[in-house]
Predict the 3D structure of the following.
Amino acid sequence: MTYATLADLIARAGEDEILQVADRDGDGVADASVIAKALSDAGDIIDARLAARYQVPLTSTPKIVNGWAVSISRYFLHRDGAPDHVVRDYTNAVNDLKDAAAGKFPVPDAAGIAPAESSSGSVTAYGSVPAFSKDRLEGFL
């Protein structure tokens, strides 16, 4: 699932930067397959992180998720080393994803995963027979 588009990347980074990192064949146009791969990989990371708490893929794209997707995709597009500000955006996005998955803040409009519930409300433990029980120590007490 992709949570951003080429237009989102251009809005954040500018057309010049996107052409520099995504025009691999030198024709003056960002290569669609390069952009699609970066966006898809970013979506996979987002889904993998959020799957612990949310139903993925998300049915809508909240602005914060779009921002994470742009930051992660942009980082992936800089295959020869990203500038510090791009690395910082990527790191912040990944850290935010970890926090969202840990429940430190909710992702707007994302459907949560309900915790599994016990049908009886009780806990059952299974194990081997205890070596020292009241019955087994009857003659020693």
